[in-house]
């Protein structure tokens, strides 16, 4: 651990720090090359309509398969992509890819794409989305953009005006991971979201005590009174499904209904190449 430097003293890097920096630089270089090398792909996780318990869309989730690192988790590479600015290129690639894929799904299926706060920096985001929609020939109402509170943290005029531009296009805006940030409720007043996505931590704790249940109940009734849809994330058990249905949650997502998988395994027209050994396959996989 490096201590704060005294005045006039040269900062000495310890070997361990150097090594860490090298590892980080190598990771960045790999990520920079990943798109051209065809290592980036998109997996799709089903979104279910609670009332009918049928699929009504998919969320696009970015995947990186490196030849020696194997599958790298988005939790690991998205922050690096944000720090380096690579997220703009990766985000645009996912947007265009997911919309092209969605063009092969039934007409009423929605497609959700996650956006990083960094993508709101420039003034080009809404133009990029418009262009991607046009290229895929998809109606804007089928696109759901998921943002987290980090987008609203700065709450610059620029960010809000981009959100309003997107909304005017007819795109729907969802607040992802709701309830995990510093000021979830106040962000709901900033912008007329179409959907609240209840963070999976609340869903996971539904059975462990009355607190999570009360919070989920509150979020769902809040959503209903604001005219917003509510999607529960991370639904893994029938008990959670029954509980959320009883509370009036309009949509659900989770391993109970399906893990994220490559487009080729969704069973719709327009599927690409099959893939094996994906990071999302696991013992509790439920086939619909
Ligand atoms: P998120 O948008 O909240 O996505 C939900 C995450 O929960 C996904 O993890 C998904 O695989 C996982 N998940 C879904 N159902 C279950 C379940 O029943 N149980 C459990 N334990 N997990 C479940 P993933 O794919 O690793 O993505 C993590 C995060 O990385 C995403 O959270 C999102 O914030 C970010 N991310 C992924 N793809 C993109 C992207 O294309 N752009 C940006 N900006 N961020 C992305
Ligand atoms: Mg999401
Ligand atoms: Mg989420
Ligand atoms: Mg998340």
TrEMBL record:
Q: Which UniProt keywords apply?
A: Coiled coil, Membrane, Transmembrane, Transmembrane helix
Q: What sequence ranges are listed for the domain EAL? A: 24-274
Q: Where is this region: Disordered?
A: 266-288
Give the compositionally biased regions (Polar residues): 281-288
Superkingdom field: Bacteria
Q: What is this protein called?
A: EAL domain-containing protein
What is the species listed in this Swiss-Prot or TrEMBL entry? Aurantimonas aggregata
First and last residues shown, out of full length: 507 to 794 of 799
């Amino acid at each position: 651990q490096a201590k704060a430097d005294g005045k006039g003293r040269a900062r000495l890097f310890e070997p361990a720090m150097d090594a860490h920096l090298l590892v980080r630089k190598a990771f960045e270089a790999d990520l920079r090359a990943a798109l051209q090398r065809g290592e980036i792909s998109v997996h799709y996780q089903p979104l279910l309509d609670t009332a009918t318990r049928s699929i009504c869309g998919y969320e696009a989730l970015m995947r990186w398969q490196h030849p020696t690192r194997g599958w790298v988790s988005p939790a690991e590479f998205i922050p690096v992509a944000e720090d380096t600015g690579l997220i703009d290129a990766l985000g645009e690639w996912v947007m265009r890819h997911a919309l092209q894929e969605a063009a092969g799904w039934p007409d009423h299926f929605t497609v959700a794409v996650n956006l990083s706060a960094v993508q709101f920096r420039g003034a080009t985001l809404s133009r990029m989305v418009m262009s991607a929609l046009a290229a895929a020939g998809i109606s804007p109402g089928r696109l759901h953009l998921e943002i987290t509170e980090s987008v609203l943290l700065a709450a610059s005029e620029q960010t809000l005006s981009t959100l309003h531009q997107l909304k005017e296009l007819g795109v729907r805006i969802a607040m992802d991971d709701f309830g995990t940030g510093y000021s979830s409720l106040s962000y709901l007043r900033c912008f007329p979201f179409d959907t609240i996505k209840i963070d999976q931590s609340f869903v996971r704790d539904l059975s462990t005590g009355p607190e999570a249940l009360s919070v989920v109940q509150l979020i769902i009734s809040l959503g209903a009174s604001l005219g917003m849809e509510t999607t529960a994330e991370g639904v893994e058990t029938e008990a959670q499904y029954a509980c959320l249905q009883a509370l009036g949650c309009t949509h659900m997502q989770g391993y109970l209904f399906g893990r994220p998988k490559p487009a080729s395994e969704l069973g719709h027209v327009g599927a690409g190449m099959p893939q094996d050994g994906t990071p999302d396959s696991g013992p509790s996989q439920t086939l619909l």
